[in-house]
Amino acid sequence: MRKAVWGWCLYDWANSAFPTVVQTFVISTWFTQAVAESKASGTAQWGWAMAASGLAIALMSPFLGAVADRSGRRTWWVAAFTAGMCLATGLIWWVRPEPGSALLCLVLVAVGTACFEIATVFYNALLPAVAAPERIGRISGWAWGLGYVGGLACLVAVLFGLIQADPPPLGLDPAAGETVRAAAVLVAVWMAVFSIPFLLWVKDPRGAGGGLGPAMRDALPNLVRAVRRWPPASKVGRFLLARMLYTDGLNTLFAFGGVYAAGTFGMPLSQVIVFGIALNVTAGIGAGVSGWLDDAFGPKAVVLGSVAAISGIGLALVLTESVTLFWALGLLLGAFLGPAQAASRTYMARIAPPQDLNACFGLYALSGKVTAFAGPALLAIVTDATQSQRWGMATILIFLTTGGLLLATVPRPGR
Asked: What is the pLDDT of residue 23?
């Protein structure tokens, strides 16, 4: 069991390189600065690409989750979509710093994002199988903290091994964007290598599921029955609706944090990466500490407190024009990002009826993906209309505050 816990936690280390380097701090920033025609149009295009991937996730993940619940094959799906994520990320090498390559970059990032999110669906559903009930909060928090450390380590390797290396390794040409494109290849290799312990040590629950064929046939009826079992007014239903809203805000914040730092505050790519490294340090500390707080005070208190803090700090980040204050507020905000996500996992594990745990996690996946396109789409619309990144980023606060207010009405889960 100890190996299974470590394998499960190390997968967070492996796959966190993708959102850190590709979605938030390096590839997204490079796209708006060097590939797109302008920063504003690049931000909007990136938003539409994230919205398209979110729609694909919303359509695919509930059905595939139901298939996995029926067949019992979760680790297989994690492996398959991790492979797709690695392939799409590695192919970013062929993107050149010119508007003609914009579509290729957006398609590859959208595909990689969809694979990342769908793999995470099955990964999260394995938490109750690897962690004892009284330690679910700690294991979830530790894994998220380890993920931030993994993203940090990969970001450091990208910054000092590629972006700021003088001379660049392997004769890479920075003017052609080759140091940044090589960062995508490094992320692909990173994810593939560090996913191996998960694939070797984490096993599906014994006796779970049946054949893939019957699972495919039964998936949709089972999913429909699960949705009918928990109407929106129920405890589970309200939590899922609340999570749907605040998760949209968090995901959009991750996708556009680096773009906002570069476009509004004029940070060069190297400084955005340093900011990302510092942010990951505070986020990793926050996620690790939240595991004990989760088990001690319950996941609702951790999620509510984190979402409230992120909303308040986020408002200040939109209003400030000081680079120094942006750094201070950004690092403070990082301490609450991991706890909001890690405690949401344990909230679902504790609130779900034991006999319907897998069905609940299927709906949990649905709640995080069904409107995943909404945040990036609204941000893109407002940015396009106002030609202002500040107004676009301000839309994130709508999702965070609405989700937090709805979560406040959900009863505290039992132990």
From this structure: 87
**What would the mean pLDDT of 53-61 be, rounded to a whole number?**
79
Q: Give the three-class secondary structure for 189.
A: helix
Contacts of 196 (CB under 8 A, 6+ apart): none
User: Structural domain of residue 256, as residue ranges?
Assistant: 2-200+217-407
Q: What is the pLDDT of residues 383-397, one digit of tens each?
A: 888 887 788 888 888
| Strand, coil or helix: 46 | helix
Confidence of residue 415 (pLDDT cuts 50, 70, 90): low
Rounded average pLDDT over 59-75: 72
What gap in Å lies between CA 353 and CA 85, rounded to an integer? Answer: 33
Reading phi first (left if > 0) and then psi (alpha if -120 to 50, else beta), residue 266 is in left
Here the CATH number for the domain that contains residue 306 is: 1.20.1250.20
CA distance 401 to 335: 18
> Does a structural domain hold residue 64?
yes
State the pLDDT at residue 189: 97
Maximal CA-CA distance, the chain: 61
306's CB contacts (< 8 A; 6+ apart) are: 290, 336, 337, 339, 340, 343
